[in-house]
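Instructor's aside before we start: the two examples that follow are unrelated to each other. I chose them only because their records fit on one page, so don't look for a connection. First example below.
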Amino acid sequence: MADGLAEFSDNEYDLVLIDCPPNFNIVTKTAIIASGNLLVPARPDYLSTLGIEYLIHSVKALVKDFNDFAELGQGEKVDSIQPKLLGVVFTMIQEYGGGPMAAQRAFMGQHQTAGLTVFEAYIKRNDTLFADAPQYGVPVVLNRYTSGSHQSVVDGLEEVATEFGRSMKWWK
């Protein structure tokens, strides 16, 4: 995967996002090995936030195992990897009073105190907007809704993109 992505990196794309399933299978491992940076999306609930710690531990073990293999120098030369964890972005946030609900804020705060970078921006939950997007093949941000809730979701996605860009040192 890394070799395939390298063909595009210099000419056509500034960034390639790889969306992986929420488990640590061969697809996710391959994507991690091919990536320079990792962003972990998570719901702010008990089971999902438990998975963050597991994922970080698993990524560290994968990187160590891969780099140990790369150092053996057998067969085709393989470069070592050191993907940078940019942080956690919380998704499916239900707002109340202009911010995440109290129950969700508690889970979001746990990881800030655990030493993980947690994006201040988050992806809001709006079942109506997100449910229709795949059916029509149009991203939520490009739909021509005129409701305040649509604009709120778009604004939130733009905040996530801006914070992501800052974490990548693209813009200030």
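Example two begins here.
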Amino acid sequence: MGETIEIQAAEGQAEAYLTGTPGDPGVLFYVDAIGLRPQIEAMADRIAGWGYVVLAPHVFYRDGSAAELAPQGDLRDAGAREEFFASLGDRIPAYTPDRSEPDAEAWMGELRKHAGEGPVGVTGYCMGARLAVRTAGQFPGTVAAVGGFHGGGLVTDGEDSPHLAIPGSTAAYVFGHADQDQSMPPEQVAALGEVLAGAGRPHLNEVYEGASHGYTMADTSVYQEAGAERHYRELESLLGRTLR
């Protein structure tokens, strides 16, 4: 359905996958730590099929092209996903707010060229959930919806903890946490719920039973169909009630 385009990001040219009918409401799609690849394109196409323009940028453009950074094997094979993550080095922790926030300006600017004039939604997976929350705080009055699925580290003790962006946002939130995810334990889920409630932000903050970190990703060994389909239902409902 879509096409790969080039965006002038904060520190160079970045690939992005763009899909949907021009003029429809916009959705910014933040990838998981595995990166931009056919699985992400298929997910973006599905969201676009609900009536949205979806932009999925290659956030790791500083480290190489999407093809250069993509897994070389099948992440559904035993041990392959774990081996890939062990090879990432500091790619994920290096993508700090001082990099992601200027990039978000570029992503939003590009999305606005193709989408309608109304509010936009942001959805993110794994590390992308953190980016989605931060982007909502960066663009209050523009971002009306945030979906965050199997996100890790959404509540930390750090000064740049993603949850600190929520009170300054104007978005409604849907979070789907994996109950077998050590990167988002129950106490952090509870703390996130307290922040959402205290900020008066409409939200769902739910834990998906039997789901592992990465449960939406059908090209990996941790894919869980029930959780993935539940996430699509919740995301479609969120976008429908906030962007239309």
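The chain has a mean pLDDT of 97.
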